[in-house]
Specification:
- This protein has 553 residues and is of the alpha/beta class.
- The protein has 2 domains: 20-162, 2-Layer Sandwich (Chitobiase, domain 2); 168-551, TIM Barrel (Alpha-Beta Barrel).
- Helices cover 34% and strands 19% of the residues.
- It is built from 18 helices and 23 strands.
- Strands 8-9-16-17-18-19-20-23 form an 8-stranded parallel β-barrel, surrounded by 5 helices.
- Helix 8 (315-331) crosses helix 11 (367-384).
- The longest helix is centred in the N-terminal third of the chain and has 18 residues, at 56-73.
- The radius of gyration is 26 Å and the shape is elongated.
- The two termini are 44 Å apart.
- The relative contact order is 0.10.
- The protein binds ligand TNX.
- Ligand TNX binds at residues 342-343, 392, 414, 439, 441, 454, 489, 491.
């Protein structure tokens, strides 16, 4: 064949995209807008990465991206700051735009075969654009070894315009029932950020352990950070109970907490610390029995469940909590402090002469109102420090004209959604974390095949089906729903591997219902993106559940 024929054939094949990989776009959460194009942009050793001058935050985002790409590919791509550089070659550029439509977390990616342009108005937008680029690149971008030439470091051409549906996109972790080291917390935050969550709710204290160093009250960690043994298996009152006989404990020093907060910030993740009050407080009472209604002695709990020994609303108890929260606020600069409030039995208050006297004096009719008073005191004090409280939905029980929780208090709705919706109707902001959809400690597959978990069954599809802001809610209620959170309780999750197994891929479903416009949520489409998610998680060394291979057509 003549050279001319080869030339025309070659041109025809390249124009039709023949021989190119079929473009797939496996971004989770699915972007608000994605227009597929033909062709691919290929990163090479000579790709130019250009960013605006004088924007250090942007520079850091670009540097992290390039470091990851270089380490996976073996390239030595460098960044050029400033707009002077003109190049017709293969280029990735970051462009800051003043565009209100993008909000503080939105971004655009314009990807053609010779250039990618990323636009955002704020650094978080660039950060999320980079997370999307990671997910458009081959999953080997997360491989730990310098990758080989067999990987084509390319991105499918497309145009993406994206911003989140909800402002609060949270993932929670209970480190009280089981303790997890800083290295794991950082890995957890990496995965959060990769899926565009922006909040980590750190459940730091509970009956079974106090996990944060408080300088003024060292016994909180010295005594409350430890339990003498742990119940093996399920807890039912009627069952014979078996314990492992091993002391168990651990805590984070304040330096470690600061390090984690800094790390999270670099990934645009805010941490909400939770200090449980007035229930789930046995670890406090074990260390400082003087804050209980009876003389004690108390012990850090060795089994799971709800305990009737709780904090007593003495003045000295409020002073103690203010001291603790002062140190906590110093460590966590975010706007919210979670003060617990859930599952607080009232027997100890009923049997306490002090509580009965206080209720009479305050004209409170019952102990639920006394919990309201308790919450209202902390709420007022936290507000005076320029922060807001978050509480589990029980903080709205026991309405009383003399014990007002300010409308600034944010309600976390876990016993279904009704508590949250009621609070929203009363003008409170709310975060939805209904247990029947987004509690990731529930079974995700046939329990006969699964490790021991909390009772309920919440498979991936059910989690995915949840809509935190149904369209039929009045706008006045919708506007108070800040967002959604997946919660991860660790009674039966003793190791990082067990946590990852329960969390992934269900957290990916939650990421999508938090970020993606409801009209673009689509279960079959989500499942088509799962195989690539699994390869990404493999490369990241995440031990996710294999229960969903069978839903993949
Ligand atoms: C209820 S959710 C709790 C936790 C348990 C969880 C188990 C909430 C506010 N309280 O203490 O760990 O159920 O799913």
């Amino acid at each position: 064949m003549s050279r001319m024929v080869w030339f025309w054939l070659g041109l025809f094949l390249s124009l039709t995209g023949f021989g190119q990989p079929v473009n797939t776009y496996s971004i989770i959460p699915k972007p608000a807008g994605l227009e597929a194009r033909e062709g691919r942009f290929t990163f090479t050793a000579s790709t130019l990465v250009r960013i605006p001058a004088g924007q250090p935050e942007l520079q850091t985002i670009a540097e992290n991206f390039v470091r990851q790409l270089n380490s996976a590919s073996g390239f030595a791509i460098r960044i050029q700051a400033g707009s002077e550089t003109q190049s017709a070659g293969n280029m990735l550029s970051f462009v800051s735009v003043n565009d209100a439509a993008l909000g503080s977390e939105g971004y655009r990616i314009d990807c053609r075969s010779n250039a990618i342009t990323v636009e955002a108005a704020k650094p978080a937008g660039f950060f999320y654009a980079v997370q999307s680029l990671y997910q458009l690149l081959p999953p080997e971008i997360f491989g730990s070894k310098p990758a080989v030439s067999s990987v084509n470091w390319s991105v499918p051409a497309c145009r993406i315009e994206d911003r989140p549906r909800l402002n609060y996109r949270g993932l929670h972790l209970d480190v009280a029932r089981h303790f997890f080291p800083v290295s794991f917390i950082k890995k957890y935050i990496d995965l959060l950020a990769l899926h565009k969550f922006n909040t980590f709710h750190w459940h730091l204290t509970d009956d079974q352990g106090w996990r944060i160093e408080i300088k003024k009250y060292p016994k909180l960690t010295q005594v409350g950070g430890w339990r003498k043994e742990t119940l093996i298996g399920h807890y039912y009152e009627s069952d014979p109970q078996q314990f492992d006989g091993q002391p168990y404990g651990g805590f984070y020093t304040q330096d470690e907490v600061r390090e984690v907060v800094r790390y999270a910030k670099s990934k645009y993740v805010t941490i909400i610390p939770e200090i449980e009050t007035p229930g789930h407080a046995l670890a406090i009472l074990a260390a400082y029995p003087e804050f209980g209604c009876s003389a004690g002695p108390y012990e850090t709990a060795t089994k799971w469940g709800i305990f009737s020994d709780i904090l007593c609303p003495y003045e000295k108890t409020f002073t103690f909590l203010q001291d603790v929260l002062t140190e906590v606020m110093d460590l966590f600069p975010g706007p919210y402090i979670h003060i617990g409030g859930d599952e607080c039995p009232k027997t100890a208050w009923k049997n306490s002469a002090f509580c009965q006297q206080l209720m009479k004096q305050l004209k409170l009719k019952n102990e639920n109102q006394l919990q309201r008073y308790f919450t209202a005191r902390i709420d007022r004090w936290v507000n005076s420090k320029g922060r807001k409280i978050i509480g589990w939905d029980e903080i709205m029980d026991g309405e009383s004209p003399v014990a007002r929780v300010s409308a600034r208090a944010v309600v976390m709705s876990w016993r279904g959604t009704e508590g949250g919706l009621k609070a929203a109707r009363q003008g409170h902001d709310v975060i939805m974390t209904p247990e029947n959809f987004v509690y990731l400690d529930h079974y995700q597959a046939d329990r006969s095949q699964e490790p021991l978990a909390f009772g309920r069954f919440t498979p991936l599809e059910e989690t995915y089906s949840y809509d935190p802001v149904p369209a039929d809610l009045p706008a006045s209620v919708q506007q108070h729903i800040l967002g959604v959170q997946a919660s991860v309780w660790t009674e039966y999750l003793a190791t990082p591997g067990q946590v990852e197994y329960m969390v992934w891929p269900r957290a990916a479903a939650v990421a999508e219902l938090a970020w993606t416009p409801s009209g673009r949520k689509n279960w079959p489409d989500f499942t088509h993106r799962l195989p690539v998610l699994f390869r990404r998680l493999d490369n990241l060394g995440v031990g996710y559940s294999r229960a969903y291979y069978d839903v993949l057509a």
